[in-house]
Amino acid sequence: MAETKSGNKIHLLTKLKTSVLSKNVSLASLNYLPSHLKKDLNKTLNQALIFYQQSLIKGALKVISPEKLLLLKNPQTPQINKGETVLIVIPHNKIKYVFQTILENSTSEGFILKIIKPRHDKRLVLNTSVPVFISFVSYNLFLNFLQKDYFLVRNSNFSLDDPSLKNLEFYDIIFDENNNVDKDFQSLIHKSHLKGELIDISSGGICIKIGSILQIPENTHLIYTKFEISVEESELKFGLLSHLRNARIEGNSSILHLMFLIGFKPEVWNKIEEIIKPLIS
């Protein structure tokens, strides 16, 4: 087994504000913004949040066309490669307008970003039963995450340098400002409130079925899920922090739709999909 390593640190408060606490509206063009935001697009873009590789970066944006933006270079701008994704979020009142862009070209002035159609992740349905263990993040702990400096990290043994690696692990961990694992979070992930069954999975989230009518604790925003997928000689282990997007009742069962706080990057998801391909219906 390869040595487990940590991914990039993500500022948890920023992630919660952009992914959990607001309504996100994904758009394919600046033309689809409300008229009052289109009156002065460059002024509107001054309020934009820019995310690259899950992290907030500093930078100024200029309009090239309704489908293209220029991210001006500055000494703090990271090197972005052609074809990589940059997320632009424009907050307004309680709504956040989201533009998924890819780097089309680079100039001496900055990076030319092309707005693409909102991504709809392909959902994979497995032909085997996969138990999912669920832990609810209490509202008090959630409030604590909003009031202090915490960082979200995904620990994984995935490596592009070892394509033969088939036993993979992905675990989301929350660290405090002193780089220690939060004690309440550590306690949470070692216990489970419920057991469900995986309905489908994508690079951005999962759908789970609970065999009872569920009374979800009030003000539940975050859920920690643990599950394993075994196929032939491979095993995938997950412990992922997710945002509860929707819950509904079907007959005597409850259906939960969850979005991962950290979506899987294309190169990682491609490997996961390759491994579980024999189980896909």
Strand and helix layout:
Layout: E1 5-6, E2 10-11, H1 12-19, E3 23-26, H2 35-38, H3 41-45, E4 49-52, E5 55-57, E6 61-65, E7 68-72, E8 85-92, E9 95-106, E10 110-115, E11 131-136, H4 139-147, E12 151-156, E13 168-175, H5 183-189, E14 194-201, E15 205-210, E16 222-231, E17 234-250, E18 253-260, H6 266-276
Parallel strand pairs: 3-9, 13-17
Antiparallel strand pairs: 1-12, 2-12, 4-5, 4-8, 6-7, 7-10, 8-9, 9-10, 11-14, 11-16, 12-13, 14-15, 15-18, 16-17, 17-18
Structural account:
With 281 residues, the chain is α+β, with helices and mostly antiparallel strands. The chain has helices at 12-19, 35-38, 41-45, 139-147, 183-189, 266-276, and strands at 5-6, 10-11, 23-26, 49-52, 55-57, 61-65, 68-72, 85-92, 95-106, 110-115, 131-136, 151-156, 168-175, 194-201, 205-210, 222-231, 234-250, 253-260. Strands 3, 4, 5, 6, 7, 8, 9 and 10 form an eight-stranded mixed β-sheet that branches. It is globular, with a radius of gyration of 20 Å.
